[in-house]
Each structure stands twice: as structure tokens, then as C-alpha cells.
Amino acid sequence: MAEHNFDVVILGGGSGGYAAALRSAQLGKSVALIEKDKLGGTCLHRGCIPTKALLHSAEVADVVRDSAHFGINSQFGSIDMTTVNAYRDGIVDKLFKGLTGLVNSKNITVVAGEGRMVGPKTVSVGADSYTGKNLVLASGSYSRSLPGLEIGGRVITSEHALQMTFVPNKVIVLGGGVIGVEFASIWRSFGTEVTIIEGLPNLVPNEEPAISKALERAFRKRGIEFKTGVRFSGVEQHENGVVVSLESGERFEAELLLVAVGRGPNTDGLGYAENGVSMDRGYVLTNERLETSVPGTYAAGDIVPGLQLAHRGFQQGIFIAEEIAGLKPVTIDENGIPKVTYCEPEIASVGLSEAKAAEKFGAENISTYEYNLGGNGKSQILGTAGFIKLIRQNNGPVVGVHMIGSRVGEQIGEGQLIVNWEAYPEDVASLVHAHPTMNEAIGEAHLALAGKPLHAHA
Ligand SMILES: Cc1cc2nc3c(=O)[nH]c(=O)nc-3n(C[C@H](O)[C@H](O)[C@H](O)COP(=O)(O)OP(=O)(O)OC[C@H]3O[C@@H](n4cnc5c(N)ncnc54)[C@H](O)[C@@H]3O)c2cc1C
Predict the structure, then answer these.
(1) Does the beta carbon of 16 lie inside 6 Å of ligand 1?
(2) Is-catalytic flag, 435?
(3) 61-71: per-residue pLDDT in tens?
(4) What is the pLDDT of residues 391-413, one digit of tens each?
(5) Ligand 1 contact via 177 beta carbon (within 6 Å)
(6) Strand 141-143 vs strand 263-265: parallel, antiparallel, or unpaired?
(7) pLDDT at 458 over 70
(8) Which atom of ligand 1 is nearest to the CA of 158?
(9) How far apart are CA 436 and CA 143, in angstroms?
(10) Across the chain, what does the average pLDDT equal?
(11) Cα-flanking dihedrals φ and ψ of residue 228, to 5°?
């Protein structure tokens, strides 16, 4: 076995791993980055980027369909999935080349192959072993299923859904979380009949209840069907489709079943527990400085319990690199991480929900305000409905920003600055927002919460 020594060895080249590699190299460390598939991981190849490309094609389809409303007479023909996929792959390829070039231009040795932890700070790849003064575990996640629900044939996950070369006529989506509603939205825009099945009482159950309700209204209007608060009991596959049954006895037929019930940590068989890493149900446990129970071994991204988001992984990777380099970075506040769901209409939020804020500060010590996009000029031009909900601590800062409406994902940057910099509504109210933008709605909402509503009817 050939032995190789580096300052930092990283297992997994996704968002968490490659961010740790780039920042470590920047800080003068020698780095080995072990990746069995492609640099960029889930986000670039099977997650964020390809789904958002499909969502953009979906938006174009909707615009063409509705163009007569804006006085543009065009004819919607059909969805050409070969071209849609080529457009998507073109974006992924370009970003992949850029990332590969960037990593190769640094003091980073990319090791192609499947790694396994074989010592406190050592990973083996085939006949070679890589030992770091520090080790970073960043092996990511996989699409989970339910016990007894086998993936295969017409029962697919997001990975398969992204590779499809045709538009299905009818799909059942199991799971009304982020991935489920994004695919439901894409397919509906492409002309598919979609039914979402969700066990909890609402779609996007991790969002503010008012946001869930607004999404349900918007989806109903778009002809996306959903059943919430129901329990899946099984699926039968036949030559032309699937029959999905619920515990209530209800049955639904479709061409495909997309299983979108969440993602599990990819840690099985990788030697973590055997080498002293404390685990919980497959997740790697860390302290708030992202160090595992093995001193000098850290973990980043989806294998660490918490929000499974690419930008969280990036930030954790950067944090770990700086921690290893002795820069003592400020810990990441999980509550300050923005979340965006890119269905139509979009959902974006950061900070506490009203319920969490009431729990933390006492219901009598918080105030909320909901600004309806009906009062926002740009939203009317775009033809979107929705609102911005703010939660503040009385005589204190804004602790939650929650939005729904077309393109609100682009507004979350200001939302996260407000929450993370602990701005008071009065501070934001005195800042000027450009007119006419959707962004103005944030300004208006803060004006209202500061007691001086302008374009608000309530
Ligand atoms: C359909 C979908 C849409 C998504 N959309 C968004 C979005 O819009 N925004 C967002 O923020 N997040 C989104 N996500 C989540 C995001 O992709 C993940 O949070 C992010 O990729 C996690 O990064 P990671 O580094 O932890 O893991 P990954 O990106 O999964 O990377 C782990 C890497 O480790 C490699 N690896 C694993 N085991 C080994 C081994 N033994 N040896 C060598 N290499 C190994 C894998 O090949 C992989 O490249 C989406 C996910 C999915 C599935």
C-alpha cells in the first residue's frame, strides 16, 4: 500500500468537500480531495443546478402559454425534452469545467476513486492510503425511500427524474417537501397531470403555515392536485403505469411514481463508526465547530444533521478550512441560513417562524406583519400573487422573513442580511428600495412593521 501524506485529506468532492479544499489550498495547505464520481457532487450534477435549469424551461413554457395576455401572440407547440436536456447539460458542463479548472489550478491533488476511512485521519483508495494532519468527511447524501418501497421501473427518484427524455402524462409525487414540489411544478408546466401525496397536513411543511396555505392555493389554481395528511401504503407496477394505494384505501393511477421523501446520509460502509466517529442514525455528529468525536477529523454538508442545502455545505467547508488553519472563524448560525424552494410561485425564508419566535421570546413579545404583493407594482406587472411576512421582537430586531411569489428567491439576500445583522424594522424602513422592483415589497413591509405603512391596505 502506497502511503501519501497531506495537510488536509477530504473525502467527497461535493459542495462541502470542494469548498473545504479550495479554502484550505488558499490558506497554504496541501490538499487531497477524494472523489469517486464527479467534482461538484449532488448539487452540480443531480441537484440544485439541473433542477433549476428545468424550472427555467418550465417558466418559459408558462410564459409562452400565457403570452396572449401580454399582447404577444405566440403559439405553444410542445416540449422538446432532448433540447431541454441539452440546455440543462450545457449549463452543468460549463460549470463543471470551470470548477475542475479552478481546483486543478490550486495545490489540490484530486484522487479519483472510492475512499474509505481506515484510521483516525486516514482514508484508503484502492491500494493507496491518504493521511492528513486533518481529515474532512463530506460524503453527501442519497435519495431515501420508505421501508418496503423499492425504487426501480416506474418508481423513480429525483436522479431518474432528471434523466428523463420524455414528458410523462401523469405522475404521482410522494412527498410534498422541497424536491417534491419543485418536480411537481416543472412537470405541470410541461403539461403533465400531477398529484402530490404528503403525510403531514400541509405541503412544504417546514415553512410558515401561511406560506404552505398560499402555495396550496397557487398549486390548486395551476391544476396541481395534492392529498395531504394521508399515509401511503403501497404501489403496484404494471406495463403502462403504477397504482398507488393509501392506507385509507384510496387508489391513484399514473405513469410514474416519484419518491421524494427526503435524503439520507451517505455514510454506510465508509468506516466512520469503526474509526471512532460518533454517529446517529447514519449522520455524523459534530460539535458546533464541526469537529467529530475523533480529534482533528471534521464533517461538512448533508452528512451533518441539519438543513441539507448546498450553501450550508459550502459555508461549513470554508469554516473547517479556516478552523484547521487556526483562524478561529465565527460559528455558523443554522437559523440564519436562507432557504429557497424554486417551484412556481417561489418560496424563500430565513430565521424563525412565528411559532418558534413565540416559543423563544413569548407570544406577547413579538409582532408580525404580512405585506401583500397586491400592493407592489412589479408583482402586478409580472402577474404574481403572494406576500412577505416579517416577524420581529418587540423593540428589537427582525427575527424572521418569509416570502412567497414569483422570483422571491432573488430577494432572500436582503432577508438574510436583515436577520443575520439583527436589523430593526426602523433601520430597514429608512433605507431606499428601487422602484419598481419586487424588492420594494421588503422595504414596504418594514415600513409597515415600523408603524408607517405606505402602500398597504391593512
Ligand atoms: C433534486 C435536488 C435538488 C436540490 N436543489 C437544491 C437547491 O436548489 N439549493 C440547495 O442549496 N440545495 C439543493 N439540493 C441539496 C444539495 O444538492 C446538497 O445539500 C449538497 O449537494 C450537499 O453537499 P455535500 O458536499 O454534503 O454532498 P454531495 O454534493 O452529495 O457530495 C458528496 C460527494 O462525495 C462523493 N462520495 C461519496 N462517497 C464517496 C466515497 N466513498 N469515496 C469518494 N467519493 C465519495 C460523491 O460522489 C459526491 O460527489 C438539492 C438536492 C437534490 C437531490
Answers:
(1) yes
(2) yes
(3) 999 999 999 99
(4) 999 999 999 999 999 999 999 99
(5) no
(6) antiparallel
(7) no
(8) 1
(9) 41
(10) 97
(11) -115, 160
Question: Any residues with CB less than 8 A from the CB of 327 and at least 6 apart, and which?
Answer: 27
Does domain 2-142+264-334 sit in CATH 3.40.50.720?
Answer: no
Q: What CATH number has the domain spanning 155-261?
A: 3.50.50.60
Torsion sign, CA atoms 138, 177, 83, 153: positive
Are the C-beta atoms of residues 348 and 416 closer than 8 Å to each other? no
**Cβ 15 under 6 angstroms from ligand 1:** yes
The number of CA neighbours under 13 Å toward the Cβ of 449 is 34
Cα separation, 368 vs 247, in Å, equals: 39
Cell 476513486 sits at which residue?
A: 113
Q: How many angstroms from the chain centroid is the CA of residue 168?
A: 24
Q: What pLDDT was estimated at residue 457?
A: 63
DSSP 305-340: SS---HHHHHHHHHHHHHHHTT--PPPP-GGG--EE
Instruction: State how far the Cα of 328 lies from the Cα of 342, in Å rounded to an integer.
Output: 35
Would you state the cell numbers that stand for residue 55, as one nine-digit string?
A: 424550472
pTM: 0.97
Task: Find the 302 Cα to ligand 1 centroid distance in Å.
Answer: 7
Domain ranges of the chain: 2-142+264-334, 155-261, 345-449
Separation between Cα atoms, residue 370 and residue 401, nearest integer Å: 10
Terminal C-alpha separation, the chain: 72
Question: Of the residues 4, 160, 238, 435, which is catalytic?
Answer: 435
Topology alike, domains 2-142+264-334 and 345-449: no
Sequential DSSP letters for 37-81: S-TTHHHHHHSHHHHHHHHHHHHHHHHHHTGGGGT---------H
Fold topology of 345-449: Enolase-like; domain 1 (3.30.390)
The set of cell numbers assigned to 162 is: 432528471
Question: How far is residue 388 from each of residues 116, 137, 197, 438, 445, measured CA to CA in Å?
Answer: 46, 38, 27, 11, 7
Q: Distance between CA atoms of 18 and 40, rounded to whole angstroms? A: 7
Cell numbers at residue 14, please?
Answer: 461535493
Nearest to 301 by CA among 288, 315, 287: 315
